[in-house]
């Protein structure tokens, strides 16, 4: 009886470990794809949604609300990120 309980606990621990590893892999893939999209200038920014897709009415940055939300703005000119990294 005790051996059975220990075996069940070990199996549950192994299953939990496997699930956590799979979740980490999914997160890494999403992060990697977002980085590649940024490098290819293919992120869906508010500027893109406003000017290309015509699904948004306001193209201002959702963080600083000052300039158009383009990839260049997010990566280098957004005051929100500049102040946050200091």
For the secondary structure, the number of strands is: 0
* Average pLDDT: 81
Report the major sheet. Answer: none
How large a portion of the residues is in β-strands, by DSSP E?
Answer: under 5%
Helix-strand topology string: HHHH
Overall radius of gyration: 22 Å
Low confidence ranges: none
Into how many domains do the coordinates divide?
2
How widely separated are the two ends? Answer: 59 Å
Structural class: mainly alpha
Helix content: 55-70%
Q: Which term fits the overall shape? A: elongated
The helix count comes to 4
Describe what this molecule looks like in 3D:
With 86 residues, the protein is mostly helical. The protein has 2 domains: 1-40; 43-86, no CATH class. Helix content is 69%, strand content 0%. It is built from 4 helices and no strands. It has helices at residues 2-39, 46-53, 71-77, 79-84. The radius of gyration is 22 Å and the shape is elongated. The mean pLDDT is 81.
